[in-house]
Every structure is written in structure tokens, then in C-alpha cells.
From TrEMBL:
UniProt organism field: Cryobacterium tepidiphilum
Domain D-isomer specific 2-hydroxyacid dehydrogenase NAD-binding: 129-300
Keywords: NAD, Oxidoreductase
Annotated transmembrane regions: none
Top-level division of the source organism's lineage: Bacteria
Listed GO MF terms: NAD binding; oxidoreductase activity
Name of one Pfam family that matches: 2-Hacid_dh_C
Protein name: D-2-hydroxyacid dehydrogenase
Length: 337
């Protein structure tokens, strides 16, 4: 963590004493590279010092080495540990991998950085929807081939009905931006909620029925057992007319095999994907070579403000923690998101 962000946390919550020892952590290779350079290694003495620090903390800013084993070790070795904040918005899946006992999950509260990526991801969603509506792959191909074709009509987001899966931190901003563009927005939620910019809220059970009347779909849902392949054969068989698909939530929500089948059949016209079932996207994935698919290497959420927003969220949760109030963004330890 940069010095100015350490200061920001200590200024906002002076009761926090931060212990930052950058020499014990790998250098970040790029923004939000929280696991850092894999070439980094601690000497045995440094590893002992690192674990001593972890084992004497009340709270952790990040999962040690972003490793489920290291997380399990510190939870078991540090009886005073009460709170771990994950850098990732989808940190719930990292906590799940640590395979902690019910007692451990009760003793230690886990929080995520969910919600801070609403703006950049909503812009990526708009970008993907516009690229689909304006036939970006055809424009790029024709320009590359110097082909001045006959004219054709372009889609208008303002005339589209867009399905937004998930109405949390990301989904709400997506809905607001699409509504501002004039789109009709159908939100998908398990709860009866009223959300600005959403014209209708449907339950996930109604997805296939809604599929026939949409022009585009944006996924913002996390990866859980309940959301796995929510957009699969049943959904893609029901869409028609070359819909646009955007995924900025978790890759596992879309069954990529079913998506490819729908692209081949023309039921899906364009897909802008920032997340994938398996990351990095395997070399042999059919998605790489398709002109009707835009592959973004899980980078659409990052903005220059990423680290500051996480530090601000941590500082306000630190105040809640010290005041004995409920923390924001608690990991649901049943569904792990
Ligand atoms: N592309 C990226 O780099 C990137 C960056 C940030 C986040 N993400 C992913 O996006 C996810 C969402 O982020 P967020 O900030 O919007 O999180 P969030 O504020 O926690 O919102 C998650 C939403 O998903 C809903 N949900 C969960 N399971 C559901 C289900 N089975 N059916 C219907 N709705 C369900 C939740 O609804 P309830 O109210 O019913 O719980 C909640 O509204 C993260 O978990 C992460 O996986 C990706």
C-alpha cells in the first residue's frame, strides 16, 4: 500500500495502527496485482517475521499472499484475528477456498471490495452494448479490407430492452447509465426491490421467459453455486435476433459452450466479455479467434482510483469495527460472495 494511502487510513480512523512492511511483500507488476510478482521469495527469516506480524494482528488488509492456505494458517494461528478485508470485490470465493470451519467463519469477519467498481464496469457495459448495436466487428473488418459497402441500419441502445443480472453495486450503476441512454431496463434480483433506472424487476426463475423480448443482456452477478451457468442452453435457446451479451460479473455465470453455440446460430450477435469461466482464458478457447467476441483480460474494472477507493472503504469499515457496528460488504458465508 502506498504511503499516502496508509496516511489516509490513519487520518480517517486514528484508532487504527497500520503495520506496513513493503519489503516483505512482492512488488505489484501492474495495477491491482495483489498477488504480486511470482518470482518474489522471502528468506526463511523474512517468512517467520511475516507470519509473526500476521499472527499478532487484529485485522488484515488483504489475504496474505492471496493464498487460501496462508489465510487458513493465519486464522488458525492467530486467536485475536477478527477481521480480514479482501482486495477483490469477489473475495467471497477466495474465502471459500480456504475451507474454514463454521466456528472460524463466525470468529473472523470477512469483507470484500464490492461496490467500488460500479462506474468503470458500467462504462464497459455501455461500451459493449454500443459496440454490438453499432456492429463494431463489421466496421473493423470492412475498414481493414478497404470495403465501402452498401449502407445498413444500426441498432440504437435507446430503443433496446436490456436485461441486467444482479442489482448490487455494479448492476445499479449499469441500470442508471442504460436508463439515461433511453434503454428499457429489466433487472434480475431474488428480492422485491425498487431500483432507479430499472423498469421492471424479475426473479432469476423468469429469465428464460424474459429472454425472447430482450435485445441485450449484462451480467453483473458474482460466482456462486446458485449463479453458475445461469446463462446457459435454456437462456441462449430463447434469445433471438442477434442479442448483445456483456459479462462484467463472474465468468462462471455464463456457460461459454452454450454462448458459442448461440453465436454460431446468430442468436447472439456480439459478446463483450471481461471475465471468463477459466482465467487466464485458455489458449484453445474458441472465444479468442471470434470477431464477434471482444476479449478483455479482466481489466475493465480498474481505474486510477482503485487503491484509494479500497483504502477509503477499509477506513470506514475500521470505524464500524472499532465502534462495534456491522461492517459493510460482509462476505455471505453460506453462498460466499
Ligand atoms: N470484472 C471485474 O473485474 C469485477 C470487478 C468487481 C466485481 N466483479 C464481480 O461482480 C460481482 C458483483 O459485484 P458488486 O460490486 O455488484 O457486488 P454486490 O454489491 O455484492 O452485488 C452482488 C449482487 O448479486 C446479487 N446476487 C447474488 N446471488 C444472486 C442470485 N443467485 N440471484 C440473483 N441475484 C444474486 C446480490 O443480490 P442479493 O441482494 O439478493 O444478495 C447483489 O445484489 C462480484 O462478486 C465479482 O464477482 C467483477
Amino acid at each position: 500500500m502506498a504511503d499516502d494511502l496508509c496516511q489516509l487510513i490513519e487520518q480517517r480512523e486514528p484508532r487504527v495502527q497500520l503495520v506496513c512492511v513493503p519489503s516483505l511483500l512482492p512488488a505489484m507488476r501492474w495495477p491491482a496485482d495483489f498477488s504480486g510478482d511470482p518470482a518474489f521469495q522471502r528468506t526463511p527469516e523474512e517468512q517467520l517475521r511475516f507470519e509473526d506480524l500476521l499472527d499478532s494482528a487484529d485485522a488484515l488488509y488483504g489475504i496474505p499472499d492471496v493464498s487460501p492456505d496462508a489465510l487458513r494458517r493465519v486464522v488458525r494461528n492467530n486467536p485475536r484475528l477478527r477481521w480480514v478485508h479482501t482486495m477483490a470485490a469477489g473475495g467471497g470465493s477466495q474465502v471459500k477456498q480456504a475451507d474454514l470451519s463454521p466456528g472460524e467463519l463466525e470468529r473472523v469477519t470477512f469483507t470484500t471490495s464490492a461496490g467500488i467498481h460500479g462506474e468503470p464496469l458500467a462504462e464497459f457495459a455501455v461500451f459493449g452494448l454500443l459496440a454490438g448495436a453499432k456492429s463494431l466487428p463489421r466496421l473493423l473488418r470492412q475498414q481493414r479490407d478497404h470495403e465501402w459497402s452498401g449502407r445498413w441500419t444500426m441498432g440504437q441502445v435507446a430503443e433496446q430492452t436490456v436485461l441486467v443480472l444482479g442489482l448490487g453495486g455494479i448492476g445499479r450503476v449499469v441500470a442508471a447509465k442504460l436508463s439515461a441512454l433511453g434503454a428499457t431496463v429489466i433487472g434480475v434480483s431474488r428480492r422485491t426491490v425498487t431500483v432507479e433506472g430499472v423498469d421492471q424487476v424479475i426473479h432469476p426463475d423468469e429469465l428464460v421467459a424474459a429472454a425472447a423480448r430482450i435485445d441485450a443482456v449484462v451480467n453483473t452477478l458474482p460466482g456462486t453455486i446458485a449463479t453458475e451457468h445461469m446463462l446457459g442452453d435454456g437462456f441462449f435457446a430463447a434469445v433471438q435476433g442477434g442479442v448483445t451479451v456483456v459479462n462484467v460479473g463472474r465468468g462462471t455465470v455464463i456457460d461459454e459452450r452454450a454462448l458459442v453455440t448461440a453465436l454460431d446460430a446468430g442468436r447472439v450477435g456480439f459478446a463483450a466479455l471481461d471475465v471468463f469461466e477459466s482465467e487466464p482464458l485458455p489458449d484453445d478457447s474458441p472465444l479468442w479467434d471470434r470477431p464477434d467476441v471482444l476479449v478483455s483480460p479482466h481489466t475493465a474494472a480498474l481505474s486510477a482510483a482503485e487503491d484509494r477507493r479500497i483504502a477509503e472503504l477499509f477506513a470506514s469499515n475500521a470505524t464500524r469495527f472499532l465502534d462495534g457496528r456491522p461492517l459493510l460488504n460482509r462476505v455471505d458465508t453460506v453462498e460466499f460472495y
